[in-house]
Every structure is written in structure tokens, then in C-alpha cells.
Amino acid sequence: MYTGDGSRDAKWPGQEAWVSFNELWITNAHIIARSCDLRYKQPNNNAQETNDLYDAIKQVAHETRVDHRFIFAAVMQESEGCVRAGSNGDKHGLLQDYKGAYSCNKDGKVQNPCPKDQIVGMIRDGIAGGTEGNGFAEDINEQSGKVGHDVAWAYYRASRQYNSGSIDGSDDLEKGGSGKHCYASDIANRLMGWVDAASTCTLDG
Predict the structure, then answer these.
(1) Is 143 left (phi over 0), alpha (psi -120 to 50) or beta?
(2) Quick check: is 205 in a domain?
(3) What pairing do the DSSP bridges indicate for beta strands 109-110 and 97-98?
(4) For 159-176, how does the pLDDT look when each residue is reduced to its tens digit (9 = 90+)?
(5) Is the pTM of this model over 0.90?
(6) Backbone φ, ψ for residue 109 (5° rounding)
(7) Which of 82, 147, 162, 171 has its CA 20 to 30 A from that of 107?
(8) Across the strands, what pairs with 88?
């Protein structure tokens, strides 16, 4: 369980410690394959949809310069890679972005198969931002402007900001009144290769 401000001084892992994208993809493949049924009671991804998800992550990483490993970790955190992820209030799609324009399960309409343009759109809205909500990239850029810290620090802080809308005044990523207190810690663990082990984070009860 990582606590504190996301820095190396607080024992958060640096970007060089994150496992490779291919390793992340391979070790999470069994989760992606069954996530729609288990999490949303929807038809599971078919092979083409999962391939399109892989391509969409790579494409948007190139467009935004956001590390593709981080994008994948965020997808797994938000939807476990289910292209028919359900909505949570105003949050939609693979990255549960705010009022996202793209989804294959929205307002009672489920698309099966989920078209590639929808999959790319879900990833792009969550990372680059949509018409009404920030994406991860904007939050990362905001945090990167603060001197004295490395890139990983900005990613962890952006995770908390994306999930809750703000960072607590204490700068500790597990504190604050909204969102999931384990969110940034979970992202860090996913980037380090966490897949099936029980979470050690107890901050959300």
C-alpha cells in the first residue's frame, strides 16, 4: 500500500521500475477476456475487440505522449478492459471519463460488436479529454509543471486528480473526501505487475 505524495521519497516506484507493456498485456489477458460478463453482465470481448483495444492504447499513447503502460493500467483500474463497460452516473466507457461521447453500453443501448471507432474514442476521451471533462493527459501536464519531481510522481498525482477531481491539501494521495482513496496506490501496483493478488490497500474499507 503506497501512501504519501507519490514521490520517490515516499517510496513510490519510479517509471523505470514499471514492467513492460507486453508483460502487462499478457498477464492481464485472462481478466480482459472475462471482464464484461463478470463485472457488467455483458457479452465478453471478442478477439477483434480486444485487438482493437490494444491498438487504441498504442495509438492514443502516440497522440498524447502519455505512457502506454499507464493508459493500460488506468483501463484495467476503471473497466478491466471491457469494451461494453457500463456507465456510472456521468462517467462512461473504458476509462469512465466524465460525460464521454463514446461508449458501447450507454443509455440502455449495448453495441455488440463494439466498433473500433468507439473503442478508440473511449480511450482518447479518457486520456486527451472530451468536450466537458479533463483527460489524464491534462492532469499529468498540470502536475509535471511542478519542479523537483520525476515523471512517475506526476502520473500518480494525476491518477488521484482524475478519480476525485482534486488532490487533498496535505498532498497525501490517500487523503481527501471524494473518490477512491486506494486509487493512486492501485495504479502504481498495476504498473508494477499486480494482477490477481489481494489488494493490501485498506483505505476504502
Answers:
(1) alpha
(2) no
(3) unpaired
(4) 999 999 999 999 999 998
(5) yes
(6) -105, 115
(7) 162
(8) 91
